[in-house]
TrEMBL record:
The keyword Cell wall biogenesis/degradation does not apply. Gene3D superfamilies: P-loop containing nucleotide triphosphate hydrolases. Pfam families: ABC_tran, BPD_transp_2. It is a multi-pass membrane protein. It comes from Dactylosporangium sucinum. InterPro entries: AAA+_ATPase, ABC_AA/LPS_Transport, ABC_transp_permease, ABC_transporter-like_ATP-bd, LivM-like, P-loop_NTPase. The chain crosses the membrane at residues 12-30, 36-56, 63-82, 88-108, 115-132, 164-183, 217-240, 252-280, 286-304. The lineage of its organism: Bacteria, Bacillati, Actinomycetota, Actinomycetes, Micromonosporales. It is found in: Cell membrane. GO terms for cellular component: plasma membrane. This is Branched-chain amino acid ABC transporter permease. Keywords: ATP-binding, Cell membrane, Membrane, Nucleotide-binding, Transmembrane, Transmembrane helix, Transport.
């Protein structure tokens, strides 16, 4: 069973979608499209479509939505009004139903996308209650409590309803397969990778140029479109709809389908829909205990599989690593410092009136490695945070070549070529190594020499972490299982794979062994030799002595001394402030 699932997982998404449609059609053929079993199979498909949509919003984007039932109801009513009242063709009624969900999802996502998990849950729950009430109140359109009947499938405007019993079942089977394919494509796309990155580590994602807000709005819109399409299919399946079919419980049911199946996984929503439609129907034969057994079953399943039945969320990122594995070894040029790349001009940054940076100025040149050192709390990390846009400066400016970075968002600064690592690696647990590198891949056409050097550096960093870039299985595994050292190398490899102009490294040696530090130093030196300006914040003074061209010593938010590392130990003020020697 496990081997079969493994093989099915490895099929391309398009084939998986086709297979799903074929299986649904075969089962429908065996049971008869008008039979009770046929109805149940179609209901599973319809709910699966809505659950796949919710998996985009909640699973991929991590936005807890309790409002999937509202989009489902909206799609059902838009489709039912167009099909029943205006006698539109079924394909167009379904399409417009889905579009209504897309628009409603985007309209919800724009204000809701900036809220935290609880705020989002509250807004979406409010939406379900509002929509449910509107279905009753706007009876001129919705039929109020009586609902809408006569929802017949037509091929063209005002034509007679189609005779065939197969139109609706076939449409349901095809749309389910199509939605599964679209859902998988979404996860595999750059947008999907960005969405998961924001879910797992929003600050790390912003450092790669990803806008968290837009990924959430897109996920809301896509998730609602799926739900509305499911709702439209439900209207045709039932031929009659009323508000009773869309109680707030429906949204909870969709959520449980996603969580039970495995939030964020690609097969989970299908499994969730299958189980949560079939199990209650089987239990209906035992009316006194059915709810108790159903509840206990859910508890036991979640206890045994806390991340759901299908927990794997990482997806292959085709060709992401080919350029790394196939890259020929490149000779490393001698390192020379060139023109200024990054300049801090009198940067101040205060927190509640206390200045963490109080007028810091320094310059980093092309190909140069600058060590930013100083005692704990002297402002080193704050300086990196100001450069990469996480903290806007209180006053002063940071200039990247000719661009003033002050006031730009972290995403905008990252897109201009500033990459960084963090004291604690901000990698994305639900994404594979391949996906990390694919997400960070440069958007434009970088200088070929820089590109070759960066690819070589990425390969060597992965190897330093004991990861073989040619080992496809390892490269497609979720990074959540990786050790601290491996994550450090992965984070650095990710930052470098974007071919940055400036590389900021925050305590890269922390937690690494002596040999790992040495290997890391060689990679950083080679990247600098290819023209990248590097700033290293580090307490490991031996590493600083070996690696950097120039040291900038911070103390209490000001530059205490600047010069070559060899002279560091001879400067009294540095010894006093930094090493505690008075
Ligand atoms: N978000 C924040 N809110 C309030 N104070 C902050 C914030 N970030 C930094 N600080 C303060 O700014 C000062 C400088 O902190 P910073 O982390 O930049 O020092 P550091 O030199 O990197 O220290 P370490 O070597 O321990 O990492 C500290 O006093 C710190 O408490």
């Amino acid at each position: 069973m496990r081997a079969t699932i493994q093989k099915l997982r490895q099929l391309p998404a398009s084939l998986q979608g086709l297979l799903l449609t074929a299986v649904a059609l075969l089962v429908l053929l065996a049971s008869g499209p008008q039979s009770y079993n046929g109805y149940v199979i179609q209901l599973i498909c319809v709910y699966a479509v809505a659950a796949l949509g919710l998996n985009i919003t909640t699973g991929f984007a991590g936005a807890l939505s309790l409002g999937q039932g509202a989009a489902f109801a909206l799609g059902a009513y838009v489709t039912a009004v167009l099909a029943g009242t205006y006698e539109w063709p079924f394909w167009l009624a379904l399409l417009l139903g889905a579009v209504s969900g897309l628009v409603a999802g985007a309209a919800t996502g724009f204000p809701a996308g900036r809220l935290g998990v609880i705020g989002l849950a509250m807004i979406s729950l409010g939406l379900v209650l509002v929509v449910n009430d509107m279905l009753i109140q706007f009876r001129g359109v919705t039929g109020g409590m009586f609902g809408i009947s006569g929802i017949d499938a037509r091929l063209w405007f005002k034509s007679d309803p189609v005779d065939s019993l197969w139109v609706v079942p076939a449409a349901i089977a095809v749309v389910t397969g199509l939605c599964f394919w679209l859902h998988s494509r979404y996860r595999l796309s750059r947008l999907g990778q960005a969405t998961v990155a924001v879910r797992d580590e929003p600050i790390g994602a912003s450092a790669l140029g990803v806008s968290g807000y837009l990924t959430k709005v897109a996920a809301f819109a896509a998730g609602s479109a799926f739900a509305a399409l499911g709702g439209g299919l439900f209207a045709y399946l039932s031929a009659y709809i009323s508000p009773d079919a869309f109680s707030p419980n429906l949204s909870i049911l969709f959520l449980v389908m996603v969580v039970l199946g495995g939030s964020g996984s690609r097969l989970g929503p299908l499994a969730g829909a299958l189980i949560l439609v079939l199990v209650p129907l089987q239990l209906d034969e035992y009316p006194h205990v059915n709810t108790i057994v159903y509840g206990l079953l859910l508890i036991v399943l979640m206890r045994l599989r806390p991340r759901g039945l299908f927990s794997r969320s990482a997806a292959p990122a085709p060709k992401a690593l080919q350029h790394v594995t196939d890259a020929p070894a490149v000779p490393v040029p001698a390192r020379e410092s060139g023109e200024p790349v990054l300049t801090a001009h009198d940067v101040k940054r205060s927190f509640g009136g206390v200045y963490a940076l109080n007028g810091v100025s320094f310059t980093v040149h092309r190909g140069e490695i600058v060590g930013l050192i100083g005692p704990n709390g002297s402002g080193k990390t704050t300086m990196l945070n100001v450069v990469c846009g996480l903290y806007p400066p209180t006053s002063g400016r940071v200039v990247l070549q000719d661009t003033d970075l002050s006031g730009l968002s972290p995403e905008a600064i990252a897109r201009r070529g500033v990459a960084r690592t963090f004291q604690t690696p901000k990698t994305f647990p639900g994404m594979s190594i391949e996906e990390h590198l694919a997400l960070a891949a440069p958007a434009g056409e970088p200088d070929p020499e820089l590109l070759a050097a960066c690819r070589q550096a990425v390969r060597r960093l992965l190897e330093l972490g004991g990861l073989d870039p040619a080992d496809r299985a390892a490269m497609t595994r979720e990074s959540r299982a990786m050790s601290h050292g491996q994550l450090r190398f992965l984070e650095a490899a990710t930052a470098i794979s974007g071919c940055p102009r400036v590389l900021l490294l925050d305590e890269p040696a922390a937690g690494l062994s002596a040999s790992e530090i040495e290997g890391f130093e060689r990679v950083v030196a080679d990247v600098a030799a290819a023209g990248v300006a590097v700033v290293v914040v580090e307490h490991h003074l031996d590493m600083i002595g070996r690696l950097v061209d120039r040291v900038v010593v911070l103390d209490l938010g000001t530059v205490l001394w600047e010069g070559p590392p060899a002279e560091l130990h001879d400067v009294d003020s540095v010894r006093a402030a930094y090493m505690g020697v008075r």
